[in-house]
Amino acid sequence: MKNMNLDSYRFLISWSRILPNGKLSGGINQEGIDYYNNVINELLANGIKPLVTLFHWDLPQTLEDEYGGFLSPLIIKDFRDYADVCFKAFGDRVKHWVTLNEPWTYSINGYANGTMAPGRCSSWVNPNCVGGDSGTEPYIVSHNQLLTHAAAVRVYKTKYQVYTLLSRSKFNASCHSFPSFSVQHLWT
Questions:
Q1: Using one digit for the tens of pLDDT, what is the confidence trace for 131-170?
Q2: Distance (Å, rounded) from C-alpha 125 to C-alpha 135?
Q3: By CB distance 3.0 to 4.6 Å, which of 24, 87, 150, 158 could disulfide with 81?
Q4: In which region does residue 39 sit, left (phi positive, over 0), alpha (psi from -120 to 50) or beta (all else)?
Q5: Which CATH number does the domain housing residue 62 bear?
Q6: How confident is the model at residue 173 (pLDDT cuts 50, 70, 90)?
Q7: What pTM did the predictor assign?
């Protein structure tokens, strides 16, 4: 990356690599923390800014099995705890955070048409789906995603903002965008 003159690198911190059962009560995997510390330190040593994504569709299976993952408001506390662990371990060096990668894509493809994990949808949308409600679940998931984003930002601002008084950290949820062009623009 350094030889390519890259000045930043966006990567995922795997939730289940940090919290193997998805919850703080199950313990923190120090080997996972060490791994990402090494990645971040190596990036910085080479003049490359780390941009960390906390969730890129890799929900710990235990949370899906226990309460349906993003279908349940219980996800908010577990995501907040996971984010808190990451901010504490890496926040002194990471200044750019992406809480959720493409939340719309995750909610639509996972809960409306069933083409991505967890593969939920109504049978009238996709006959291969084994469960779900395409008319309500994408909205429930989207709502809970917004609440998890807000909870993560809130915990950062209340507990860790002091570390970055001079260079404030940036937060966002990554969006899957489509450029819009007029028909006239396309044909000229």
A1: 999 999 999 999 999 999 999 999 999 999 865 444 455 6
A2: 10
A3: 24
A4: alpha
A5: 3.20.20.80
A6: low
A7: 0.87
Would the pLDDT of 175 be above 60? Answer: no
Report phi then psi at 99, rounded to 5.
-70, -50
User: What are the respective helix, strand and coil percentages of the chain, to the nearest 5?
Assistant: 50, 15, 40
Q: Which whole-number Å values give the CA distances from 136 to 83, 133, 141, 148, in the listed order?
A: 27, 6, 9, 19
Considering Cα of 33, then 60, then 22, then 84, what sign does the dihedral take? positive
Amino acid at 21: N
Q: Using CA atoms, how far apart are residues 178 and 188, in angstroms rounded to an integer?
A: 20
- Split into its structural domains, the chain has a count of 1
Q: Is residue 1 part of a domain?
A: no
- DSSP bridge partners of 113: 121
